[in-house]
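Title: Prediction job returns without error message
Component: structure pipeline
Severity: low
Priority: P3
Assignee: unassigned

Description:
Job completed but the reporter wants confirmation the result is attached to the right record. Sequence as submitted:
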Amino acid sequence: MKIAITSTGQTRDSQVDPRFGRAAYFIVADTENMEFKIIENQNINAAGGAGVNSAKVVIDAEAQAVLTGNCGPNAQRTLSAAGVKLYTEVKGTVSEAIELFKTGGLIETAEPNVQSRFGMGK
């Protein structure tokens, strides 16, 4: 299964980025063979629409789940419409997040956990 993890950096030792739409990077990991693809998020400084556009990036990368700190309503709706599972309030390193996902230590959410434009303050 391919999962996308928001990341502050380009390695598995990087911290999970608490922002979805304005995350610095998405690390797409295949949980079966542990291959990784790093996607620099071009929406990090977008004036608007960062969540929806970032959701499209993840969907185009064929991720079936997203692991992130926080996700707003527009991104959540876009991911949900595409059948992508969402896990919020994820902390620690990318490697730790993947391990928690693989062992069932994360809880899927069906709701956004922050308001629109949450990531604008960073």
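Comment from assignee: result matches the submitted record. The longest strand covers residues 2-7.
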